[in-house]
Design goal:
Length: 241
């Protein structure tokens, strides 16, 4: 075994294809070939001289790594493609980046605000893992008055259709608005709790991820993470200020 060989899912991650966890799913789906042989099980290792193909196209390790913060407007999808033809948040990133970037975390079609894009699979995997305890802060405005029972549900926890939801903190900022900090951030968590109480968010904006603030970044604009922001995220100190 060559000393520099690495696991195939790590190779795909380093090449900017996906996080390690997502790369494992790609391998299992039979889309990856190594030296002409389809690989569908974990454990395969690759190194210098090996030819890796994904969907018939060569996969090469990337030398330039990007860490971008984007203020996603509502009406954009955080996927690499959309069968329905809806606009992609990727299209808002600076032109001239040839590397394949993908989002870290989720923001659904109607939601807006801060989201990261990177081609560093290790970075994406660390931030996306529940053990990171990565805080995500949201400002939410509702079409109607928000009763205190909703705040209690976010803070104390609530089970909806067998799924448990609980915010780190939730507080009212007005009759129809609140600020929520999530850690686990399950899929459409805020919308599902609102719907349970027959409420509808007219605005759902993420304003912070860990130490990174949305700040004055304009809708549709992006910027590189600062060196300090990256150091904090990379160190695992993700609870913000």
């Amino acid at each position: 075994m060559r000393g520099k060989d690495i696991r195939l899912q790590v190779y795909l991650s380093h090449a900017g294809i996906a996080s390690r966890r997502a790369a494992e799913e790609i391998i299992a789906s039979g889309r990856v070939f190594v030296n002409g042989v389809k690989v569908t099980t974990q454990g395969c290792k690759v190194g210098e001289g090996d030819v890796v193909l994904l969907d018939g196209k060569p996969v090469l390790l990337e030398t330039n790594q990007f860490y971008l913060a984007l203020n996603k407007p509502p009406g954009y999808i955080c996927s690499s493609n959309d069968p329905q033809g809806r606009p992609l948040a990727l299209s808002l990133l600076p032109k001239g980046i040839n590397e394949r970037l993908y989002s870290v975390g989720r923001l659904d079609y109607l939601s807006c605000g801060l989201i990261f894009f990177t081609n560093d699979g290790n970075f994406a995997g660390r931030l996306g893992h529940p053990s990171s305890r990565l805080e995500k802060e949201y400002i939410v405005e509702a079409t109607g008055v928000i009763p205190d029972t909703v705040i209690d549900a976010f803070n104390s926890g609530i089970t909806i259709e067998g799924e448990n939801y609980k915010a780190k903190t939730a507080e009212k900022t007005g009759r129809k608005s609140l600020r929520i900090v999530l850690i686990e951030g399950k899929n459409k968590e805020i919308r599902r709790i609102f719907s349970h109480f027959h409420l509808h968010p007219s605005l759902l904006r993420r304003v912070r991820i860990g130490p990174v603030l949305l700040g004055a970044l304009q809708e549709g604009a992006s910027r590189p993470l600062t060196e300090q922001e990256f150091k904090i995220l990379d160190s695992g100190n993700l609870r913000g200020n």
